[in-house]
Amino acid sequence: MLDASERLVMAGSVDEVVAILRDTARAAVGAEGVAVVIEHDGRCSYVAEDAVSPLWQGQTFPADHCISGWVMHHAETVALRDVRLDPRIPQDAYAPTFVRSLVMVPIGRPVPVAALGAYWSEAREHDDDTIKRLESLARLATIAIENARLTQARNRAAALGAAQNRILELAVAETPLSSTLDAIVREVEALSTSRFLGSILLLDEDSQQLRHCAGPSLPRAYHDAISGLAIGQSLCACSTAALHSEPRYASDIANDPLWAEFRELAVGQGLHACWSTPIRSAQGDLLGTFVLYHSEPRQPLSADLEIVDFVVQTVGLVVHRARAEAAIRVSEARYRQIVEGAEDFAIITFDAQGTVTSWSIGAQRIVGYRAEEVVGRAGDLFYTAVDQTEHVFHAELELAQAQGRAANERWHVRKNGTRFWGSGLMMPLAMDHGGFVKIFRDRTAEHEAEAALQESAARLHFFDELDSQLFNIRHAEEAMLAAIGLLGRTLNVSRCAYADVDIDHDRFWIRSDYNAPGIQSSAGTYSLDLFGPRAAADMRAGRTLIVRDVMAELGQDEGRETFSAIDIGAIICCPLVKDGRLTAMMAVHQNQPRDWSPSEISLVREVVERCWAHVERVAAEMRLRESEERLRLAVDNAEVGFWDVDIVQDTLIWSLRTKEIFGIFTDVPVTLDDFYDGLHPEDREATIDAFVAAADPERRTLYDVDYRTIGREDGIVRWVAAKGRGVFDSAGRCLRVTGTAVDISARKAAEEDLRELNATLEGRIVQAIAEREEVQAALRQSQKMEAMGQLTGGVAHDFNNLLTPIVGTLDMLQRRGVGGEREQRLIAGAMQSADRAKTLVQRLLAFARRQPLQAVSVDVGKLVSDMGDLVASSTGPQIKVVVDAPEHLPAAIADPNQLEMALLNLSVNARDAMLEGGTMRISASTESVHEGHRSKLAAGEYLCLSVADTGTGMDAATLARAIEPFFSTKGIGKGTGLGLSMAHGLASQLNGALTIQSTPGLGTNVEFWLPRSTTMPLEASRIVEAPEPRSTRGVALLVDDEELVRASTSYMLADLGYRVIEAASGEEAIRLLDSGQQFDLLVTDHLMPGISGTDLARRVRTARPGTAVLIVSGYAELEGLDPDIPRLAKPFRKNELAETLSQLGGQP
Question: What's this model's pTM, rounded to 2 decimal places?
Answer without folding.
Answer: 0.39
